[in-house]
Amino acid sequence: MKHFVITAVGEDRPGIVAGLTEVLYKKGFNIEDSAMTRLNNEFAVMLIVATEEENITEQELKESFRNVAQEKNLFINVRQIPEDVFNQEHKSGQIYSLVVYGADKPGIVYSVAKLLADRGINITDLRTEKTPEIYVLIAQLEFPEGLSEEDIQPEIERLKGELNIDINLEKVETVEM
Length: 177
Known about the structure:
This protein is an alpha+beta fold. The chain folds into two domains: 2-86, ACT domain (Alpha-Beta Plaits, 2-Layer Sandwich), CATH 3.30.70; 95-171, 2-Layer Sandwich (Alpha-Beta Plaits). Helices cover 31% and strands 40% of the residues. It is built from six helices and eight strands, in the order βαββααβαβαββαβ. It has helices spanning 16-26, 58-63, 66-72, 83-86, 108-118, 149-163; strands at 2-11, 30-39, 42-51, 74-81, 95-102, 122-130, 135-142, 165-171. A four-stranded antiparallel sheet has the order 2-3-1-4. A four-stranded antiparallel sheet has the order 6-7-5-8, with helices on one face. α5 (108-118) runs antiparallel to α6.
């Protein structure tokens, strides 16, 4: 089994998802994970796909998107994921939800991301939105084993004061089946 990550970005318009997924379907690929969203007037696609075809290369797969890339004016990138990387066991820690809001200013995302990275906290999902009134950052985080909300609360309070923003951090309770 071979796995690839495919990214595509272009001006938002109908048919982008249909065009990309048609190519994958006709080539016998399975979409294993995806994120697709409109950012302002751009549409961004990230896909993890798999195939049984052992001889296909990154370049061949990228070339198969040539027509849809031209038709929809998309920038498409393809990268093979080495199987040892794909099959690595992922240890996840406690999941937290982070919401930041305040007046828009440069450095909010960097400052929050730096604080988290310095403590070994993994950002698994992050979205931002700016309205005329407010800037909002919403993230899902994985805390490493042994680190708790209380451990980083003083740093969060410092950042809130420095940037004049509100930050809410909440543990996500999971249900085991």
